[in-house]
Amino acid sequence: MQKRFLHTIKNLVTAIAVTLFFACENNFNDVQQVGVLQNQPIGEAENIDLKYTELEEQDTTVRLLANLISPKMFDYSNRDFGFSEFPEGIQLKVYDENNKLTTITSKYAIFYTETDIIDLRGDVVIATHEKDSLFTDQLYYNQELEWVFTNKPWLFKRSVGPLHGIGFDSDKGFKNFQMLEMGGDFEIDN
Questions:
Q1: Domain with 141 in it: what CATH number?
Q2: Residues facing residue 4 across a β-bridge
Q3: Percent of the chain with pLDDT over 90
């Protein structure tokens, strides 16, 4: 009886092990597909027209602070270092406290969620309400510090005369503007 019981248990364990062995087939295509899905965006949006507003408490009116317009956005917030990508560029309209408009455009943009840094690339133009315009190929904007900077060549057209150079740091209103290198070659397409 004891021998028969041990033999039954041994057969049962062998049957389970064989079943598990054959059930665990390694399908490399399935494993590759998991990696692809992790690299895909968690969301996609088209024809974005996002408005950022603020409620004025004294008279309960809503004031428009910014308007982001873009043909396409990919949301990669599922990554360890999340970001949003705008592969077809952006147009960002920013309104100051007096409702004066500054427009920022680029052919490509990426927003890093954790650092609040926006990386603008490709024909970056900032046009202020004072008719000043900044042209560069790449520009970073730190939202938290409200600071813009680049190491690329730039041209700053303004009413008192143009400036150009390579690299600068500035506050968002270009009041505290520091050039890294004055002059240099710069081409602009009109």
A1: 2.60.450.10
A2: none
A3: 35
Residues whose CB falls within 8 Å of the CB of residue 103, separated by 6 or more in sequence, listed in order? 91, 92, 93, 94, 125, 126, 127
Taking the complete model, does pTM exceed 0.85, yes or no? no
Is 30 contained in some domain?
A: no
DSSP assignment letter at 27: -
Domain range holding 147? 43-182
Q: How many CB atoms lie within 10 A of CB 84?
A: 19
Q: What is the domain count for the chain?
A: 1
Query: Which DSSP string do the residues of 89-122 spell out, in sequence order?
Result: -EEEEEE-TT--EEEEEESEEEEETTTTEEEEEE
**What letter would DSSP give residue 128?**
-
Residue 96 sits at the vertex; the CA angle it makes with 92 and 98, to the nearest 5 degrees, is 140
| CA of residue 144 relative to chain centroid, distance | 15
For residues 70 and 85, what is the distance between their CA atoms, to the nearest angstrom? 10
2's CB contacts (< 8 A; 6+ apart) are none
Indicate whether 116 belongs to any domain: yes
Flag whether 103 is in a domain.
yes
Query: For residue range 111-124, what is the model confidence (pLDDT) as tens digits?
Result: 998 998 999 999 99
pLDDT at residue 74 tops 90: yes
- Residue with structure tokens 């270009």? 174
Residue 52, domain member (yes or no): yes
How far separated are the first and last CA of the chain, in Å rounded? 96
